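Lab notebook, bench 4. We co-purified these components, and the gel suggests they stay together. Before we commit to crystallization screens, I want a quick structural picture of the whole thing.
Request: model the full complex, all chains together.
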Amino acid sequence: MKVKVWGARGSVPAPGPEMNRYGGNTSCVQVTLADGETLILDAGTGIRSLGFALAAGMPNINILLTHLHLDHIQGLMFFPPCFKTDSRITIWGPASPEASLEHRVARYISAPLSPVEVRELPCDVSFRDTPVSEWELGSARIRAESVTHRGPTLGYRITEGERSLCYIPDHEPGLGAPLDTVERDWISGFDLARGAELLIHDCQYTDEEYPEHVGWGHSPLNDALTFAQRTEAERLLLFHHDPLHSDNFLDSLLGTAIKRWEAIGRSADQIELAAERREIEVGAARELATG
Amino acid sequence: MEGTQKPLELILARNLLTSLSTPAFLVDHTGMLLFYNEAAGALLGIPFEEAGQMGVEEWGTRFGPFTSNGEPIPLEELPLTIALREGRPAHSAFRIRSASGDEHDIEVSALPIAAEETSGAMAIFWPVDAGRENGEATR
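Here is the predicted assembly.
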């Protein structure tokens, strides 16, 4: 199972020369399974470039949405396969008693926000509520659970054979709960992340910034590290960077993260900040070429 | 106590109750007392960390509750039980006895918590007196 980051920014796209190394596109991660099938985690603006890179003749595409905040769906309307008649796209997302997933996504892909409507897309697109129980896509087993964020929001665990990936890009498990001491069955997302070989987790804020953003649905560095430690995730990829955080700022944040990670007995090569086009082989903990 | 991860709705409810200065209880769909906050611990005379989780039969009798005449109130008439079994908010006034023997007249409002796979209920306790000394006659 291979992971490639196409967008790691949170909240809003943040283009600019000072953002080039980590990238300014919002959440989108490509997961390539052993059988060659591709799963796409979230449809932020990073999905546009992913769409161009997808091999021609890949008709079946599964997009797993964690939630419907704009930074996680904004790229959908610019995803090239949406405009190919031979594409079959299934969009999975959180159920809501308020309206169907299609109806809620269509609020964005409709006038006056969009020049096209969902029904006008030439691809074969369908919308599916994520099941409560585990289900299979290709050679992977998928599990989704609600996690602490603003509004209905899911985290995903993708398991293929012995390899496991957990993706919780928007998560504030420390809200009202001291993560270092609360019993683990009371920690949001614990079962999803438990023992995952790669945990991709929210780290929007520094610890100094967090007090001004409590309840906004995102984690500070300390909570991201504590969550990874409590869940015994093997490798941590910090994600959902604040749009105000430049490359230099994020380099500094990574330095702090590594020091703290090592202070709790973990290896510096098992933690990093997500950067666009970064590829990671899950399980092998082996880096692939970037680019 | 470690076990299966709780539904997010109950996790968030516990986080809320933890932050409240109003006494509050949280139970799961079976009536198991999962948590009560510090304010409830002060009212009951024992912090949750000491009392721990307990079944409905235990918490439904350990602290009373009883009427102003001293008669025990059946479990099925307690607001939390009604919220769980009937899936609706419920309110009642009664008397409880703390672990130290003090008696308190309280009002209780309970509401069900619906979750995807299971459910629970929470209750807010409002003390309507300043507490009674151990052994003082009830009204």
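Confidence is low (pLDDT under 50) at residues 286-291 of chain A. Worth comparing against the SEC data before the next meeting. The domain at 2-287 of chain A is CATH 3.60.15.10 (Metallo-beta-lactamase; Chain A).
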